[in-house]
Design a protein that fits this description.
Blueprint (H helix, E strand, L loop, with lengths): L3 H8 L10 H14 L12 H8 L3 H13 L3 E4 L3 E4 L1 H4 L21 H9 L24 H12 L4 H4 L8 H15 L8 E4 L2 H12 L6 E5 L3 H8 L5 E7 L2 E2 L10 E4 L13 H14 L2 E5 L15 H4 L5 E6 L11 E4 L2 H14 L5 H12 L2 H27 L4 E3 L7 E6 L5 H10 L5 E2 L12 E5 L8 H21 L1
Parallel strand pairs: 4-5, 4-7, 7-8, 8-9
Antiparallel strand pairs: 1-2, 3-10, 5-6, 9-10, 11-12, 12-14, 13-14
Bound molecules: pyridoxal-5'-phosphate.
Pyridoxal-5'-phosphate binds next to helix 10.
Keywords: Aminotransferase, DNA-binding, Pyridoxal phosphate, Transcription, Transcription regulation, Transferase
Organism: Arthrobacter horti
Protein name: PLP-dependent aminotransferase family protein
Length: about 500
């Protein structure tokens, strides 16, 4: 009977024409045989001389491969007694390894939390066109590229530790100062730079807050319909979500206190419906937090983009009892690719938040923080906001006009006072998720309201973004939407 070592000689196939050196091929094939169980531990390998003559390779090829396998624990040589397969790998592997845990249907998660994260994640389109109806797409042409390039250039050559190192977990001091001045100005707060922690956007803030403030099993109140990625941050920590309805006054606090620990709200402009929370509701929510010892996460992400009417005071500013955390982001007011945002925190939460934030995600790129600090301090953000408001108001008007002219039989859309999208309420009974998919398959990207729901049944609607399309292109863009809709309808009628 052939020994395993003998079989080794017949199992090896070295390709002299391949780019990979012969010793590497030998190393890989021997390793494969050991890990696969073809060469059990204790197997004595043929001598170097035998291998040289059988395989027709040089001695140095054999010795190099053996030395590497020995260093990795696959082989062991006994002085004067040859080379053996070591037990390190082969004895540990079970004869029949169990299969890996199954992946979820959508492909990449094995835990229950990961599975729910994947299953509930929104369909995010990534249009390659610079213009689309995606609700979070900002105007590429309005991005202050020259100023941003100049500010990045100003700091890119710096080699001081504050720029080259990991950076302060709270964020660059200059940026914290600039942000506190900015939010005090545009949002009427009275916060100090010490209450600001810089984040890589609102999503990081939600993830950090969910770890810091909640245990698995704690109930979280979320708006229904509401921001999808925000609620997934809480859900993925194992927190059950309880959807609260939204009416003309904003999110409705629960009639009965049910022990929820945290409420995530968008008072400035309810996302996605667009209503501003009324003063009475604001008072009710603060009372809810105080009565329950609960937290309120106030997602204030694009409140600066208001076209009409005045801002109402933030929940953060209205709550002296410090139950509110305000989350801000530069994603919609400047660009989501910069990945910068901030949290305004009650004083006693600043250190825990900064620590958790740097463990979970590390501070954002310090170079970008430095550029943003100057962008704010030099007043460029105010100028950019003024230009953006004017531009987006005109784009909204053009969109509503084009929808009214070309799609009145499909949907109705009313003007909004703030934000980057209008709600297009469908007249028909179509499922909005199906419509959005049908349009996206034809290169027209919107978001369906159906994906924003938690449990509540809602009328069909599409979120139609206006910021990403030039006013003068709006008639053609809406024309493409109308044509795509007709084509989708024809193809679904045939099915
Ligand atoms: C309601 C809401 N909050 C926050 C954000 C911003 O998230 P981020 O700062 O992580 O880009 C968005 C972006 O789409 C949003 O719609």
């Amino acid at each position: 009977m052939k020994s395993a070592g003998g079989r080794l000689l017949t199992g090896l196939e070295l390709d002299r024409a391949a780019d990979r050196p012969l010793h590497q091929q030998l190393h890989e094939q021997l390793k494969g045989q050991i890990l696969g169980g073809a060469l059990p531990s204790g197997t004595r390998l043929p001598s170097t001389r035998t291998l040289v003559s059988e395989l027709g390779v040089s001695r140095i090829t054999i010795v190099t491969a053996f030395e590497q396998l020995t260093a990795e624990g696959f082989l062991r040589s006994r002085a004067g007694d040859g080379t053996y397969v070591d037990s390190l790998w082969s004895d540990r592997a079970p004869a029949r390894p169990l299969p890996r845990p199954p992946l979820s249907e959508r492909g990449a998660a094995t835990s229950a939390r990961g599975t729910s994260l994947f299953t509930d994640a929104p369909h995010s389109w990534a249009p390659s066109e610079t213009e689309s109806f995606v609700a979070s797409q900002v105007a590429a042409s309005a991005f202050p590229a020259a100023a941003w390039k100049r500010l990045l250039g100003r700091h890119a050559g710096r080699t001081d530790q504050s720029l080259i190192g990991y950076g302060d977990p709270h964020g660059l001091r200059a940026l914290r100062e600039a942000i506190s001045e900015y939010v005090n100005d545009v949002r009427g707060l009275d916060c100090t730079p010490d209450q600001v922690v810089v984040t890589s956007g609102a999503q990081q803030a939600f993830n950090v807050l969910s770890v810091l403030l909640l245990d698995a099993g704690d109930t979280v109140l979320v708006e229904d319909p509401g921001h999808i990625s925000g609620r997934l941050a809480f859900q993925s920590q194992g927190c059950p979500l309880h959807g609260v309805p939204v009416d003309d006054d904003g999110a409705v606090p629960p009639a009965v206190d049910d022990g929820a620990r945290l409420a995530c709200l968008t008072p400035a402009r309810q996302h996605p419906l667009g209503v501003a929370m009324s003063p009475v509701r604001r008072a009710e929510w603060i009372a809810w937090a105080q009565r329950n010892g609960g937290w309120i996460v106030e997602d204030d992400c694009d409140s600066e983009l208001r076209y009409r009417g005045k801002h109402l005071p933030t929940l953060f500013g209205l709550d002296p009892s410090r139950h509110v955390i305000m989350v801000g982001s530069f994603s919609k007011v400047l660009s989501p690719s910069i990945r910068l945002g901030y949290c305004i925190l009650p004083e006693d939460l600043v250190e825990p938040f900064a620590t958790a934030s740097s463990v979970i995600g590390r501070p954002p790129a310090v170079l970008f923080q430095a550029a943003m600090a100057d962008f704010l301090a030099e007043g460029q953000m105010h100028a950019h906001l003024r230009r953006s408001r004017k531009l987006y108001a005109a784009r909204q008007e053009a969109l509503l006009e084009a929808l009214g002219q070309q799609l009145p039989y499909r949907l109705h859309a009313a003007p909004v006072d703030s934000g980057l999208h209008v709600m297009g309420w469908l007249h028909g009974a179509e499922d909005d998720v199906e419509v959005a998919r049908g349009l996206a398959a034809r290169g027209v990207y919107t978001y369906p309201l159906g994906e924003y729901r938690v449990t509540r049944r809602l009328p069909s609607a599409l979120l139609i973004g206006f910021a990403g399309t030039a006013a003068e292109h709006m008639p053609q863009a809406v024309g493409r939407m109308a044509a795509a809709w007709d084509a989708w309808e024809r193809s679904s009628a045939r099915r």
